[in-house]
Design goal:
- The chain contains 11 helices and 13 strands.
- The strands form 3 sheets. It has a 6-stranded mixed β-sheet with strand order 10-9-8-13-11-12, sandwiched between helices.
- It is 39% helix and 26% strand.
- It has 315 residues and is α/β, with parallel strands linked by helices.
């Protein structure tokens, strides 16, 4: 009996656009495709939806200054399906998709449903969709791991197993200058409606009244994204520099308990705070620090124009 020759795996690596820079529309590592998000806002009384590659950082910031906050819309099933088809036509027979957490976005489900549709057209093409549990440079790191594993000849299954392990080593700690956008996003239960009022009263001195004014002037917040879940580090801070100092202290604790392999610092409108942060981090960590001054869509739409985020890769 003749042995069936195994099909050579040609693996494409795909990310969703929320993790990418608005200026380039790409990750800093060379993935094979980016599936764009949309920015939804109102203009002259009509709802407008634009692909993120048609929007600039400045345009989104200008929209955020208005009374109605712009929001993001996930890529459709059709967007993913068209991307898959294009990659198949390019000669790929395996597709690896890295998405932001399914608990925070519908993008994972769109990617899964498009995989089912593709299977009807190309039953021999395998699509693996991974909920990374992270965003921004956390996905950048995992994409880099996937690219290196592909170059080393690893199979799609082996790369999936590797990414599942590596994703557990990724956390993001974010210092917010305002609660306005993240509260409006609805992604954190403690910042929704009555919960936000109660937490403002509990964690900000003098916050029993002037609720609306407080949200707009905004106490400063530090939060952690780990394994697809967001945790707020109480209490709120009165000043942004205090929030960044809290972020630095959390980094120190984590380095002592787990050991840090790599750091990414992502920031906007906070150059002085980042310079001071890097100096303080240098007192306990001497490894690689990669700085990104372009905030990806996922952070920009919940944090606004001023933010410091540190993506931590543990040993």
């Amino acid at each position: 009996m003749e042995e069936t020759e195994e099909t050579e795996e040609k693996i494409a690596i795909v990310v969703d656009g929320s993790v990418c820079s608005l200026s380039s529309g790409q990750l800093p590592v060379p993935v094979d495709a980016v599936v764009e998000f949309y920015v939804v806002y109102h203009e002259k009384g009509k709802e407008v939806s634009k692909a993120q590659n048609k929007m600039s950082w400045g345009e989104i910031i200008d929209l955020q200054k208005g009374r109605e906050i712009p929001r993001t819309s996930t890529p459709s099933i059709g967007d993913f399906l068209n991307t898959y088809r294009h990659l198949v036509n390019e000669g790929f027979n395996r597709i690896l998709v890295l998405t932001v957490p399914k608990k925070l976005s519908g993008v994972y489900n769109s990617a899964i449903k498009a995989r089912e549709a593709l299977h009807n057209e190309y039953p021999d093409v395998e699509v693996a969709v991974i909920d990374t549990g992270t965003t921004a440079s956390g996905v950048e790191y995992l994409a880099e791991v996937a690219i290196e594993a592909r170059s080393a000849g690893k199979s799609l299954e082996e790369i999936q197993e590797l990414l599942t392990r590596e994703a557990r080593k990724v956390e993001i700690i974010v210092a917010f200058d305002t609660l306005r956008f993240v509260a409006a996003s609805g992604r954190i239960d403690e910042l929704n409606g009555e919960s936000l009022k109660d937490n403002l009263k509990r964690h900000v001195l003098g916050a029993a009244t002037q609720f609306v004014d407080l949200v707009h002037r905004s106490p400063k917040m530090v939060a952690i994204l780990s394994g697809g879940k967001i945790e707020i580090l109480w209490p709120f801070k009165r000043h942004f520099v205090s929030a960044v100092e809290k972020l630095q202290e959390e980094l120190r604790k984590r380095h002592e308990s787990r050991g840090i392999k790599r750091l990414y610092i992502i920031f906007s409108a906070a150059t002085e705070e980042v310079v001071n942060l890097k100096k303080k981090i240098g007192g306990f960590y001497t490894g690689s620090i990669i700085t990104r001054s372009e905030v990806p869509l996922a952070l920009l739409t919940i944090a606004g124009s001023k933010v410091v985020a540190v993506v931590v890769i543990y040993e």
